[in-house]
Amino acid sequence: MGAAALTGDGSAPLRSSAVTLERLGEEAILHDRDGGRVHVVNGSAARLWELCDGRTVDEIVAAFAASYGSPPDAVRGDVQSALTALRALGVLA
């Protein structure tokens, strides 16, 4: 899954099966067992990572927007940027 998966073309970013999530109050830790790394992320990034379960980018945007009571168009750019960042961390398959 490359950049095309982040453009709303129907592709679905997926969580890496080697990564687990642990919530700690307002933040969360993504544990990458394969890479031996941990990443501290905010609650929004954790929610976004959870939504990467086979949904398309458009579906992720809609679900994320609904979580925060915002219109999808208001969060689309932020969601796409966050997906790119999660991909760079290696927590998406």
**How many helix segments?**
3
Beta-strand content bin: 15-25%
Query: How many angstroms separate the termini?
Result: 8 Å
| CATH fold description | Arc Repressor Mutant, subunit A
Order of helices and strands: EEEHHH
Query: How many domain units?
Result: 1
Would you identify the regions where 5 or more consecutive residues have pLDDT less than 50? 1-8
Any idea what the shape is? globular
Q: What is the alpha-carbon Rg in Å? A: 12 Å
Helix percent reads 40-55%
| Name of the top-level CATH class | Mainly Alpha
Mean pLDDT: 90
Largest sheet: 3 strands, antiparallel
Structural class: alpha+beta
Strand order in the sheet with the most strands: 1-2-3
How many distinct beta strands? 3
Secondary-structure arrangement, i.e. CATH architecture: Orthogonal Bundle
Question: Keywords, please?
Answer:
3-stranded antiparallel sheet, 93 residues, Arc Repressor Mutant, subunit A, 19% strand, alpha+beta, 42% helix
Structure in words:
- This protein is α+β, with helices and mostly antiparallel strands.
- The protein has a single domain (3-89), classed as Arc Repressor Mutant, subunit A (Orthogonal Bundle), CATH 1.10.10.
- The protein has helices at residues 43-51, 57-68, 72-89, and strands at 19-24, 27-32, 37-42.
- Strands 1-2-3 form a 3-stranded antiparallel β-sheet.
- Helix 2 (57-68) crosses helix 3.
- Mean pLDDT is 90; it is low at 1-8.
